[in-house]
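Annex B, item 7. Sequence and structure tokens for protein A, then protein B.
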Amino acid sequence: MPTKRQRHMRFFFSYSLAVGLFLWGVGVGAFRIPPYEGLYRLSILLGYQQADVPEHVNRALLFEQFSPYVDVVFLGDSLIAGVEWSDIYPGFRVSNRGIPGDDSVTVLSRLGAIVSSKPTKVIIMLGINDIYSGRDVPEILDNYLAIIDKLTSQGIDVSVLSTVQCVKSICGAARVRKINLLNLELSRHVASMGAAFVELQELSSNVGLDPSLSYDGMHLNPAGYLRMSEIIKPHLI
């Protein structure tokens, strides 16, 4: 028969486990920590979620259902999603796989739909949402390198764009510095993974984004996308 001390220890362990699981569940739902994305998609596919599907989850599900063969995939967050790349580069079969709100974790979780399109090249730009969520640069870099590794292992040519800056007066000096650090680390490590690093020049300026290139301090306006498209074009060949 268990002693009084053993019963107390069992109760304490069970209580701690229950509280821990509860807090983890709250964190998954409220803050979308892993494995929120996978569980949410599974619940939709099984029919448990019928309404109020977040846009980024719905777009990811659409990408899984429709994956036409293309030459080039643009992959990333709202900065990638915000323009029709097929209109800019009509000479290529282009697929826009940008999802507003995406970060390095969610992109890493949805690479199957990218690979299934059998692209020759994938062009990636990520980072700002990771930084806004408080993720440290080493973790963002690790996720980025994992993304590159999964794509290059399928024989896909990968180009990583430097993360577009934000206007300092909008996003703050600390985030500008963090984006600079991420771009520095990407420039140092991407080549070792067999990918190319494409510096977006003034769009990734160390002092922040020029307000004339953005409509809200974070997203590019037509002038910003025109400049980005000019820099990217030589890397499509």
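Protein B:
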Amino acid sequence: MRKSIARLCIRALLAAALLEAGHAVAVDVVIFDQPVSKADRRREYANALLTAVLERTVPEFGPYQIRHAVAHMERPRLFQALKDGDLVNLTAYPATPDWMRELKPVPVPIDLGLQSWRIFLIDAKSQPALRATRTLADLARLKAGSGSAWATLQSLKEAHLTVVTGSSYTGLFQMLMAGRFDYLPRGVNEIFAEYDTHKPDYPALAVEETLLLHDRIPSLFFVAPREKRLHRRITAGMEALLADGSLERLVLQYHRNDLRRAKLCTRKRFELPNRQLDPALFGRKELWLNPFEARHGFCPALLPR
């Protein structure tokens, strides 16, 4: 960690020295979006990955700066801000058709599809009803929660599940614990940080133990349309990290404990339709981490004896 920080400081000082000496140095300025609050840990991995991507591309593209937007923006506001490119020019979010069409997506999932494996936050009293679920029709008798602009909303609806929507991220936790809906699907990469953060305020909050949804909605880096050079840089960095295995190693470094806590192999699994996105996104097998593969070691039953 100290070596990484020292390397970043050296690069920043070198860029400043070159500028002072009168050399024309192109510095790519990234303005990344803000999390909901300091307690919101969902952006930790994306920030680490962004730094790795920019570092990998220094030899080709030169120095960079990472800044952050002055305030958090919910998804609809963030979408508009990205189209303008002034307040923010880069984010990492689950893909929807309008974002794919109107922004500049980098077509390598930032977490190799980990967020598309979804388990539920619940009020503990709902566990018996969910444990009794055998089919999607059974699950449809209960109510799912979703943000009104979330990418997963359409997949839930296309699976004929009953959905109650909320307009704000923090409000959804209040709605769940007030009984407005029965379960809140969350990516396996984010649910335990959210559980640990919100459990002190909601003692009855629990992670559901038996079910798993898979919607194959990729989380991507999205770049402001006018930032063509930045888009080329992020794309080149992501492809380089993917090619040498660094991306998978970083995903597992940050989320191995989440996958162990999730116990995916013991859960009843439901595949949700994804008719929103171009099927070409799903054509490259190397873009998708399969947590059920024996080599990852998360499924004891699959390990050689």
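Comment on protein B: Residues 7 and 230 are 21 Å apart (CA to CA).
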